[in-house]
């Protein structure tokens, strides 16, 4: 178990040698690439300690690309197909090209940080997806460490990339009504209406069935969503807290009654080709509406009207939250309605708070000084 210096190598010349059991025999293995003798000594001690705990030295030489193939295969049993598709795209398009040819034991924090830097500077991925890349690498190498394939997870000392704050777009009440007036005769008007009046996610709206709408109690139950690619329905919601019941105002319920009547008529008129999926929002023959087609309709309606500020469909959800905040709704109720697991999500709307704080101050002033004036008047009478 010697530590030596290779005089023929100028950069990182130090290496150490240890003996390990292999097929019933003791074999010597060299580990190179250390700048100083001290670095080699530390690495040797750590490796020997981990071997004593059960580190599989042969497994540590597994290429990361091969390990990630098994990692994604294992994920099939624990995540939704849409999530698996996202993971696979990030792994195959971004992680493997950068780290795939490295053995597990050779992956260093610097390699991981360089990948984050490249993704950040290239702009090829949104900041939120760079954070997902971090989560995938961290989880996978935690798994490798747990299986004694590496000594420790190098991601543990790499900072999670931060998401740069983006301007949150939303419509005012006036802009919302202006858009609804423009969209009134569009086939998918009710999808836009539900987004504005309930804050439902797009997948929740496109997965909504008539049996999930309680007209008497004026509630909608979120129990099914349509995948992002529009090809499959998924039981439940995006998150556990997303499975919820949402109260609906009377005007929106009245609109839904009208839509239900139209759906019944379409079913009768085209019963030979109509596919009854019980969907609230669907095509003329009852099939699921592709999220892409809904987005196209939404963009077209906005682009054809210069007076309407351009936003994304998802921003209708933000618009709903802003309206609730301006109506001074309780934060916990807002979180429950939106399907958030924590009220901390409200912090994303902090930029709206200054105007609301001024309104609060004015309301307090009106009450406080009115009370003071009345007290002063009473003293004068006495």
Automatic annotation (TrEMBL):
Question: MF terms per GO, please?
Answer: DNA binding
Q: Which key words tag this protein in UniProt? A: DNA integration, DNA recombination, DNA-binding
InterPro entries linked to this entry: AP2-like_int_N (IPR028259), CB (IPR044068), DNA_brk_join_enz (IPR011010), Integrase-like_cat_sf (IPR013762), Integrase_catalytic (IPR002104), Integrase_recombinase_N (IPR010998), Integrase_SAM-like_N (IPR004107), Tyrosine_recombinase_XerCD (IPR050090)
Segments forming domain Tyr recombinase:
166-362
State the source organism's domain of life: Bacteria
GO BP, sorted A to Z? DNA integration; DNA recombination
**Start and end residues of each Core-binding (CB) domain:** 58-145
KW DNA-binding (keyword) present = yes
| Family affiliation | Belongs to the 'phage' integrase family.
Q: List the PANTHER family.
A: PHAGE INTEGRASE-RELATED, PROPHAGE INTEGRASE INTD-RELATED
What protein am I looking at? Integrase
Which species is listed as the source?
A: Paenibacillus crassostreae
